[in-house]
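so my prof wants the structure for this chain in the tokens format not the other one, which i didnt know existed until like an hour ago. anyway here's the sequence
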Amino acid sequence: MTSNRPRTVGELKASGYQPLGVKDELRRNLIARLQSGETLFPGIVGFDDSVIPQIVNAVLARHDFILLGLRGQAKSRILRQLVELLDSEIPILEGSEINDDPLSPISKYARTVLKSEGDDAAVAWVDREHRFVEKLATPDVTIGDIIGDVDPIKAARGGHILADELTIHYGLLPRANRGIFAVNELPDLAGKIQVGLFNILQEGDVQVKGYPIRLPLDVFLVFTANPEDYTARGKIITPLKDRIGAEIQTHYPAEVSTGMDITKQEAWVNRDCVDIEVPDFLAEVVERIAFLGRGDKRVDQRSGVSQRMPITVLESVVSSAERRALTLKEEKAVPRLSDIYGSLPAITGKIELEYEGELHGSDRIARELISAAASQVFQGWAGGADVDEIVEYFEMGGALQVGADSSAEACVQGFEVVPGLLGLIEHVGLAPKESSDGCRVGACELVLEALVAEKRISRSTSGGYARAKQDPSPGKGYKGFDPFGGVDA
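here's what i got, hopefully its the right format
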């Protein structure tokens, strides 16, 4: 903001100011950003070749648009970042509730002030943050909330008749004049309220209840919706969909690496009590749990598996490692596979199950997703590695108990008992010799968990590893891993 900006209508005219519609303003500033090569939506990862180009097209075309996608796909964040495409500030007639342009007023209040004060009428300046109005649609929203209604208190205090425009209590949409109006979860808005948006989308004006006026608003409308809501709670009525310029579909990350970038960006992992070291392979396991969930038929894919799930899981995993380090007075906390199992509530609370999934139970499905994710990560890091020596140790009756709250040093000593295990993780790069003990423990747990997933050894829920459970049927050999059974000692 500058100190020499115009303070009256006369000064504003003398400055050469020319009114510009908000859609033209957004278009102009977007073009400037495209030409300068600036990042359009900082922090939005994975949409560069899909969602963002479609949003750019909509803004350039001056189209209102709706973002359609499952939960946890950054829809609301994108809408809020549209504010950065607005001018840093604009002039309004001081005292106006609906951001009246001093040179092109639309409210009776503004017209009255200009008629009485002329070029001496005061001008105020509004920054871009106050030109964004957001409303979460709920079934109890009224037309008065969105458009406006009569205000009997205004009428009484001003001595006006109720039909006078000065008695209008403006709703959120008129208050967003010359700015952006965002409605989250549009299908939750009652049908009769959606009808109230017809005029603003098509003719550019609204009709306030009880007043014989049409208020021409300058507003950019954007919406979000979840496809699940079309059947679960409500729907977007067809005439309203027809009036929205563009329907842009968001999506979950297409690549695990992209998901990891998002999770790393959003998760709170830097703690103030101890140093945190999150091995890359463990972060990948956390991310693959979400990817596997999005492809599991037992999980309701209409609800999706939100990107918030791996973010929450990673934070919970780090907290588990932090708790262990504080208890053992270790200077560094390194999460392990056992910490992911200790974070089951962060997984089960983020998935909706189909009927088959309900039969199995969310806890069992979560455990199976963890085990399968560990197997995939191990194959990616060390596919084809010779693990026969490790498996033979357990087949010959060897056993190993890894305590989730044991120190890293104690765990490394325990893993040294298993022939070839520490050598394997160093050979494939999971945890080279110079790695911390905590990282080596996590890598060893990953290898063992992968063998459990392949049913070459078994694991108890308490963290004990032993030979694969034998099938009692003659000639059947080993039955494999029962994630909810015990361990054959």
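also thought this was worth mentioning. The chain has 23 helices and 18 strands.
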